[in-house]
Specification:
Elements lengths: L12 E5 L8 E4 L3 E4 L7 H11 L9 H8 L5 H14 L2
Antiparallel strand pairs: 1-2, 2-3
Helix pairs in contact: 1-2
Length: 92
């Protein structure tokens, strides 16, 4: 796994999405280079897989179930909408 790392923009980068905890969430450079810090393909099942994989590394194993309960309340659809819209925009 990794942690958010982009703290400042390179010349020509434009922020497309920002968040409270991670101010640079999605960027683009011109029309051809787009990048996200988050995983727009992630759904609840994918989050749960990561919870299992990260337990004992990013947090104590005994906290896994509490984290699983917390993320079960999060709507992951907005990130999937971003991904869907991106595909539609560049589909040929």
């Amino acid at each position: 796994g990794h942690h958010e790392a982009v703290r400042e923009l390179a010349p020509g980068m434009q922020v497309l999405l920002a968040g409270d905890d991670t101010p640079i969430q999605m960027v683009r450079v011109g029309e051809a280079a787009w990048a996200t810090q988050f995983h727009p393909e992630m759904d609840l099942e994918g989050v749960n897989v990561r919870i299992d994989q990260y337990a004992g590394r990013y947090y104590p194993v005994e906290k896994a179930e509490a984290i699983r309960a917390q993320v079960a309340t999060v709507d992951t659809d907005p990130s999937r909408v971003i991904l869907r819209n991106f595909v539609r925009r560049f589909q040929r």
